[in-house]
Design brief:
CATH architecture: Alpha-Beta Complex
Radius of gyration: 17 Å
Shape: globular
Strand order of the largest sheet: 3-2-1-4-7-6-8-5
Number of strands: 8
Helix content: 25-40%
Distance between the termini: 38 Å
Structural class: alpha/beta
Order of helices and strands: EHEEHEEHEEHHEH
Strand content: 15-25%
CATH topology: Spore Coat Polysaccharide Biosynthesis Protein SpsA, Chain A
Number of helices: 6
CATH class: Alpha Beta
């Protein structure tokens, strides 16, 4: 069984488009799980099961929730709320996972960044057993930013293999949510970005791709 999981907070117009695109993939059965971090503002959307938490979750906490609250036999594909897949992108991710058992995480191909070699957590399939082995996403990155780079760092240190599936195309316009922010919200977003960057550097001893530590906080407690 494959379940698509999406956290959201405000761009419900884009979320509806995302859900519609996933519903066109024949591998997607049942409702798409949506965590509504606006706490009740997300409208009902056909084909989606809206989960309203007691308080807003950060991105990392939302991703962890999906693994902790779905059946252990369920395969999970996670996406941003501003992603639209092209054709059978979920099918392509799962097909790749069944063909390459030694790879633990599969990323879709963002058609807006085809030249990029970076792994992209906007649309991905992470095996449940790999998630359990690596551990949960770090919920100290709030509300977002750097939680994906942190996970990639941990994967690399453990020798976890990843793959970008070139046939799993999706569309993700950069900063589509940020463009809806007010001036004050953008200032707050910049503040969160700086705080998370500082936390990442303290945890790994440098910027992404220039880390010095092989243990979080160089083996010290955070």
């Amino acid at each position: 069984m494959i379940t698509v999981c999406i956290p959201t907070i405000r761009r419900f117009d884009l979320l509806e488009k995302a859900i519609w695109s996933f519903q066109q993939d024949p591998s997607v059965w049942g409702d798409i799980l949506v965590i509504d971090n606006s706490i009740g503002k997300c409208p009902e959307i056909p084909g989606a099961q809206i989960i309203v938490p007691e308080e807003p979750m950060c991105v990392a906490a939302s991703w962890n929730w999906f693994y902790k609250n779905t059946n252990e036999y369920t395969e999970i594909v996670i996406a941003n709320d501003d992603v639209e897949i092209d054709g059978h992108a979920v099918t392509e991710l799962v097909r790749a996972s069944r063909a390459e058992k030694d790879v633990s995480i599969f990323f879709g191909m963002n058609v807006h960044k085809k030249e990029s070699i970076e792994n992209d957590f906007s649309f991905f399939f992470l095996r449940r057993e790999a998630y359990l082995g690596i551990g949960p996403f770090d919920e100290n990155f709030k509300p977002a930013y750097y939680e994906d780079r942190d996970y990639k760092r941990r994967m690399d240190l453990l020798g976890v293999r990843s793959k970008k599936v070139l046939s799993a195309n999706y569309f993700h316009e950069p900063s589509s949510t940020v463009r809806s922010y007010t001036t004050e919200e953008k200032k707050q977003q910049d503040k969160y970005h700086r705080l998370n960057q500082s936390y990442y550097m303290g945890k790994w001893g440098g910027f992404p791709d220039r880390e010095k530590y092989e243990l979080p906080f160089n083996g010290r407690k955070s």
